[in-house]
Design brief:
single chain, MetI-like fold, transmembrane helix, UgpAE/MalFG_permease
């Protein structure tokens, strides 16, 4: 008994410095993070604060030439929220985002499953093809798509006409809003699928083979193995990709702006990104553009909040 009672204080004395060392190491890690945090605050914080200030000002063409901006308070927001065109743009953007994100996630995940099933040679060819599509500059890709849907020389019109689908001779795909967004959706999904496919494929390679074999032995069919084994394993990766796709497709700009320039009607095809660009650069209403940009920021946070909470639950 005496040996036990004397050994306990010795152990406690020997182990007591460990929490202190752990706290000291944690404090050092924060010092290493400090430069990155400061750089992030300077690079992201200043433009955001500047935009918030401009959203409460009358900031137009005169202010670009040195005139002091006029403080108007919530007037920009009042005018913006009373504009029916703004709400039409928001509804149009949400619908476009829903369709584009849904198709991108479905097709990208399907490609990932295909890459898991096929042999090495077709898998490598598929991966190289998708990588080339993903790495292609946006303007170069849009030029190729422009020729595909060209009114007079487009391959799509020629192919549909010769297949007997209908007479698509000199058909303009961009003049009508519905066909305009059909083309835009095809292009955006085509550019986004490789990222989803590569991420989902990387996650699929981490699914334990033993779990799949056990499910197959227990009589689970392909759908049941996907629902109860595969999907729960890759859900964190798919959640991150889904959140990123919502952000990217909600504020898509380059593809829409390019298509508007070669034949689309801007007033009927504006999305959030092009509408902000038109308010700011086109009409020199930088105060209104800043107010609308902040509204888009809040809308994006609202749409992605559920997925952020899901990631935090997965982390905990």
């Amino acid at each position: 008994m005496s040996q036990v009672t004397t050994a306990a204080p010795v152990d406690s004395v020997q182990q007591s410095p460990a929490p202190t060392r752990r706290r000291r190491r944690t404090g050092g890690a924060y010092w290493f993070l400090l430069p990155a945090i400061v750089l992030l605050l300077v690079a992201e914080g200043y433009p955001l604060v500047r935009q918030v200030i401009m959203s409460f000002q009358e900031f137009g063409r005169a202010q670009q030439f040195g005139a002091p901006p006029e403080w108007v308070g919530l007037e920009n927001y009042r005018v913006l929220f009373a504009d029916p065109q703004m709400w039409a743009v928001v509804a149009r953007s949400l619908a476009f985002c829903l369709v584009a994100v849904g198709l991108t996630m479905l097709i990208g995940t399907a490609f990932a499953l295909v890459m898991m099933r096929v042999d090495r040679t077709p898998r490598v060819l598929l991966q190289i093809s998708m990588l080339l599509c993903w790495a292609m500059p946006v303007i170069a890709a849009m030029t190729a798509w422009q020729w595909l849907f060209d009114t007079r020389y487009g391959l799509v019109n020629w192919l549909l006409t010769n297949l007997g689908v209908g007479d698509f001779t000199r058909h303009n795909w961009l003049i009508e809003p519905l066909s305009f967004f059909l083309v835009a959706t095809i292009i955006v999904v085509w550019m986004s699928v490789p990222f989803v496919a590569f991420t989902a494929y990387a996650a699929l390679t981490q699914v334990p083979e033993e779990a799949l074999e056990a499910g197959q032995i227990d009589g689970a069919n392909a759908w049941q193995r996907w629902r109860f084994i595969i999907y729960p394993s890759i859900r964190p990766a798919l959640t991150i990709v889904l959140m990123l796709q919502i952000v990217w497709d909600l504020r898509v700009f380059a593809q829409i702006h390019y298509l508007q320039g070669i034949g689309g009607v801007p007033s009927e095809t504006h999305l959030l990104g092009t509408y902000i660009y038109t308010l700011g650069v086109g009409q020199s209403e930088y105060g209104m553009a800043s107010a609308f940009a902040l509204f888009v920021l809040v809308l994006t946070l609202a749409l992605t909040a559920h997925y952020v909470r899901s990631l935090l639950r997965e982390e905990s």
